[in-house]
Structures are given as structure tokens and as C-alpha cells.
């Protein structure tokens, strides 16, 4: 795991990004420099810049297409859909790059050149992933850990390694019971002979300082059980949070400069999204009006930062009598209250787009915990410890919980999503926001977690 701006990224994924970019650059540059059957020779010196733009874009495009999910590579339909989507995005980026850089291909051969470049970048993306998956299955990226158990027996880490969604990432090489014989169990030669990457203790206080120094000197990292699982899973353990919660640390994590940058980022992305989707928004409004009686937009009270209530704006996706009697209800799978048009716009997340107006008003951020209704917040705060901590940041249209957990429809779902929300609050940064926005494209594209 590599720590980037407070967020833990799998080191093998970072390596994949670098290798993919290098392979894409080499493939495109060589294609331009040598020509394909002498038909697309480079004009001027724009070839290297053109290749560099596509290479740097390959990682975000692959992420948006879901090609950084190892589990997706066992599903043929998912691979084909992801590769096609990535190819279309790269083609659009290539066209935009040509507009900025000027001519790269000879006149009359632009589309032929673009097709050849598209095939080269697609081949580079696919081949790097085939190589990566093969290396992963061969155990080349597996990290071996030593686990020090506590008095209660097997640790959380052992369960996490066994249930890992990306098998082969970690392997338990050594297991020590409690604090007895730790000096022998974690002897330097023993750690080296088992190629141990890290020592993970159920209770970090049981690791004596001399053993810590010995491990650090040998390049062996030392983690607490809770810290390792949080970094690896991308969610906090709610049972291990301090009584005072993390609201104070979350607020302190954002300085004035970062707050200003985030506000500028939110406004820019919101305006761009409005402009790019304006024709779609007009068609959606017309379809809603034709499909069922009632207003086009749906306004509802939601809880924002510091518990402030605001009016959320969405496209209406349910019948007007969806909450007859005034009793709020969780949305469910195959909810009969959803209209025909509503079902489509919920699956594609089009109903969420009007929330950019809430972002522009300052009620919401583009990335953050999902805003809930006041009555649900009141109920969940009584049932789930630390639920109030979500309100120390602005709610968002998308967020870390939304891309990692399906739509919540119960108290237990809310608890699971809270674990992801608090991870985001604890470690949030503009870098993590960017990763979430890229992953949101994947979630919309493959309709993950929609109801």
C-alpha cells in the first residue's frame, strides 16, 4: 500500500498506472514516428506531445471504464464494455488534443491515423492488464505479513486477508500469539527468511520499542490491526473509534487554501456538467412531463453541514402519491412507486444532475457523504454511534460510500456506508475527490448499486 495525500492506494495499481502510461506512450509515439505502412508520418514536432497526452489520459480513462477492478477481469461482458468505453473516451481526447496541438497527421489521413492510434492505445491497455493479471495470479504482487494475535484470538486482519476481493494481495506468513516470545517470533532473520513485508498487531502496544526499531531498520512496516484494515478496505472500524469521534480532526484537515480550491473545483465541475448535459436535461424534463402528472423537479428537505437543513433538487422519479399519509419510506429494489421514466433516470443517475444547483448555491459539495432526510438522520443518530460525524463536511452528489457500497435501504446499510463516509472525512483531499469522480463514471456506466 502506498500513501498518496493521506489515501492508501494499492502499490500494484500504482505500478499498473505507470506501466500502462509508458506502454501507451511508446506505442503511440513509435506509430507516429515510423508511420503505419508509410501513411501517417508525423508533421512537425507534435507527435511526442500528442503521445504524452494520451499516455497520461490512459489511467483515468481506464479507471472510468472500470478496468482497474481486478474482479471485473473475470467477466467477459464487463471487459468488452470497459474496453469499448475506454476506446471511445480516448478517441474523443485524441480529437480534442489535435484541436489544441494542431496537425499531427498528414492532410486527408487524419481519421486513418486516429484509428491506428486508437487501436494502438487499446492494445496497450488490454496487454498491460493481461500481463498484470497473469503476474498477480502468479503471486508476484503478494505481500507477506506477520500477524500478532491478541487475547481474543484470531485478528481482524486474518479475516480480511481470507475474504479479500482481490485475492493474492496479502498472505499470512507468520502468526504469533499475544506478547509472549515476540522477540523470537519476530527475529530479524525469521522475518527475512519468510519475506515479511509488515508486522500487524491486534494491539500495537504489545510490540516493544526495540522490536519496532528492528523492523523499521529492516524495512518491515509495523501496523495496528485496525489501521491496516482501514487502509486496506477503505473504511473505518466504527467499533474502534474514540468516543469523541472524528468530527474535529475532519474539520481541522481542511485549511483555508484547500477549502477555496475545493469550492472552485465544485463550481467549475458543476458548470461544466450543466453545459455538457443541457440537451439531456431538456429531454429528461419533457419525458417526465409526458410520463406522469406532477412537477418535473422534486424538492425535499435534506441535512447538510453542521445539521443545517436545505432543499435538495432532483428530477422527479416517483409518482406524486409516493408517500401517501406523510410517512417517509426507504427506497427498495423494484420500488412500485417509481415511474417508467423514473426507473431509467435512477439507473443512469440522471435524476441526480439537478443537484449541481445545490452545489453552486453552496449547500453541497460535488464529493461528500450522501445527504439524508431529517427524519432518517434523527433515527440513525439514535441507532448508530458517530452518525452525527458525517455532518462535519458538506454532503455530496457522489462520494466514497456511494462508489464502494450499493444504495442503502436499511439501518445496517446506513451503518456500512457510514464506515466509508468517515474514512473519507478522515482522509479527504482533492486527490481522493478526483479518484471518486473517476470511479463515479464507472458506477453510472455499469449501473452499480442503482435502485
Low-confidence stretches: 36-44
**Proportion of beta-strand residues:** 5-15%
Count of β-strands:
10
Question: Given the helix and strand composition, which structural class is it?
Answer: alpha/beta
Distance from first to last alpha carbon: 33 Å
What series of H and E elements makes up the topology? Answer: EEHHHHEHEHHEHEHHHEEHHEHEHHH
Helix content: 40-55%
Report the major sheet. Answer: 4 strands, parallel
Order of strands in the sheet with most strands: 4-3-5-6
How many individual helices? 17
The structural domain count equals 3
Q: What report would you give on this structure?
A:
- The chain has helices spanning 11-34, 46-64, 76-101, 110-137, 156-162, 182-185, 188-193, 209-217, 225-233, 247-252, 256-291, 340-347, 356-361, 374-383, 400-404, 411-427, 430-445; strands spanning 2-4, 7-9, 143-149, 170-177, 196-201, 221-224, 297-303, 309-315, 365-367, 396-398.
- β3, α5 and β4 (170-177) form a beta-alpha-beta unit.
- It has three domains: 2-137, no CATH class; 143-233, Rossmann fold (3-Layer(aba) Sandwich); 249-321 and 329-445, no CATH class.
- The chain has 17 helices and ten strands.
- With 451 residues, the protein is α/β, with parallel strands linked by helices.
- It is globular and about 75 Å long.
- A four-stranded parallel sheet has the order 4-3-5-6, sandwiched between helices. A two-stranded antiparallel ribbon has the order 1-2. A two-stranded antiparallel sheet has the order 7-8.
- α1 (11-34) runs antiparallel to α2, α3 (76-101) packs across α4 and α11 (256-291) packs antiparallel against α12 (340-347).
